[in-house]
Amino acid sequence: MSDKLPPIFDNIPRDHLGFALQQFRRLAVPAGTTLMAEGDEDASLICIADGVVEVDTGGLKLGQAGPGDLIGEMALFGSGLRMATAKTTADAVLLMLDRQGYERLRDRGNLVAKAVEDVALSLLVGRLRDMNQRIASVSSGTSAANITPDPGVFRRVAKLFGGGGGRSWAWGVDKKATLASSNLFRLVNDASLTELASKMSAAKFANGHFICTQGEFGREVYVLVSGLVEVMVALDEGKVEALAQLDPGDVFGMGSVLEDHPRMASCVARGEVVCLTLDQDTFLNEIKANTPAGSALRTALIRGLIDQLAFANGQLALLDFEKKRKTGSFMTPLLRARASTEAPQKRATAPTYNEENEQES
Questions:
Q1: Who has the most CB within 10 Å: 40, 90, 109, 167?
Q2: What is the CATH number of the domain that holds 76?
Q3: Global pTM exceeds 0.70
C-alpha cells in the first residue's frame, strides 16, 4: 500500500504538515471492516489514503469512496451522529481525525484545518443543490434547475404573502448579539464575533420581497435577524415548491456566492424581515482567510448547510408520501436516499498555499 498522502495535504507547508499528521490516526484495515454504522455517535473524519470504501444508507448503496476522498465531515461539524454506513471492500489505509484533533488544528491556525473546512463546504453546497433538484424533479416531473421564475410567479407569491415590497436600511440592530444568539455561531469566540459583526450591514425587507431569486447570481450572504423566510423553487407551468422555512439565526444565500453559480432557489420574506448582510467581496475574503474569524464563518456555514439538508430531506419524504397516496408507488430508492449522507462527491484537495494567510509559526 502506498505511503503517499491524500490530496488534502497538497500545498501544505512542512511546519503545518508535521503537526497536522500528529493529530491524524493512521490505520491499516482489511476488506470487510465496518468503519462507521448509521445511527452511531462518532464525530471522526475519515480520509482514505488507499483502498475502497462502500457507503450505504438503509441497505441502499450510495457509492464508493477511494484514495483522496473524505467521509464523515457531517458528523465532525454536526451532531456527531452517523448518517450512513461505510465498509471497506478492499484492504485500506485510513487517516482518522477526531473532533478534538480538528479543534487543536483550528485553534493553532493550521492550514489542514482550513482545508478540511473548505472541502466540507464544497461537498455540502453540492449536496444541497442536488437535493433541491431532486425535489424539483419529483414535484414537476422535470428538472427546474437554474431557471428564473416568470413574473407571474412573483405576483402569485407576493399576493399569497400579502406584500411584495422592497428593501430598506435597518437601524438599531445589535449585530454582534445577533450572531452570538445564533446556534450556528454558538462556539465562536468574542473577538471573532466582533470582527465578523463589524463587516456586516443590516437590512429590512417588506412582506413578500424576494431576498434571493432563483436563477440570478448572488451578491450577498444573509443572517436572519427577525421574521420568517420561505425557501422555494420554481417549477414548470408557473408552480413553486417549498423547500424550507428559515428562522432567526439561520444563514442563507451562501451557495451561489461560494460557487459563483445562479441561485438554486428563491428566498421570500414572510412578514417583515430583518437580516444582516455580507457583500460578496467581503464574504469571499473572510471565507478564504486562514484566521479565527474565517474559520468561524466557514464552520457556521457548514452547520447551516447541514440544517438545510435535514429540512430538505423531510420535504422529500413528504413528497414521497404524497406520491404513494396518489399513485400507489414510492419514488425510486436512489431518489429517496438522503442527500445528507456522508457519500463522497469529489476529491478533497487543499487550496494553493499563500504565505500571507499563514497563522501557525
A1: 109
A2: 2.60.120.10
A3: yes
